[in-house]
Every structure is written in C-alpha cells, then in structure tokens.
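[audit] Reproducing an earlier prediction to check determinism. Same input, same settings, fresh worker. If the tokens differ from the archived copy the diff job will pick it up downstream; this log only records the rerun itself.
[audit] input (126 residues):
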Amino acid sequence: MSTEALPEGVRNLIARSIKSASHIEVLMCLRQDTDRAWTAQELARELRTNASMVENQVRELGELVATIGGTPSRYRYNKVSEDTDKDVIALIDHVRTHSRAVLDAIYANPIDTIRSFADAFKIKKD
C-alpha cells in the first residue's frame, strides 16, 4: 500500500500531529483506554522508554492529549472532535495492517518541509 492509498484524514492527521513512530505508540497507548490518566512514568514503563521522552512526545502531540494537573502531571487521550477521533482510530488500524505505508507517510513529511525551505533560496532566472 502506498501513502496515497491511506485515507485523506489519516494523511492529514500524520502531517499535522505525527512526526515519528513513537508519537503513534504514545497515541495508541492513550487511545486504548480513554478514561485512564497516565503519568509519564507509567507510559514510559508501558512503552519501555524513559519518562522524559514520553513527556516530549505528549507535548508534541498537542491537542490530541489532555494534560491533567497534579504532581506528577497525568495525560489522557483528548477526543478533539468526532472526525479527528475517527482519523485516530483509522490511523491505529492502518498501523496494524499497513505499517509500512504509515511510516512512509510520517517520514516523508520532513523531506517535503526541507525541500520547500530549500526551494525558497533558489535563485530564479528572469
């Protein structure tokens, strides 16, 4: 499956919010139990990584994660809208069935951004 075969909503979600495979891992963990509020340490233990990495991932996921105050802070999946939630569910389904296409879509984004930035410096011939 090519990245073009991914649903448009999934491609847009990836472009908007998903910058690495670890973002998906955090999102999948939070989405599996939407009522649970996790500490960074609990997520880190579940994902077999470190808490500071999880805190960075949660921050980068933006509106998809609700931060609940307290010490330590807790994190929970944030259902932004019905459409976004459907896109998150579709993303998770595609990760399970077409992980290569999802990873290609994630890691193609920076190249497009870098290429656009570099193109801004090209000298145009008149």
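[audit] rerun output stored. Observation attached for the diff report: The CA atoms of residues 26 and 62 lie 12 Å apart.
[audit] end
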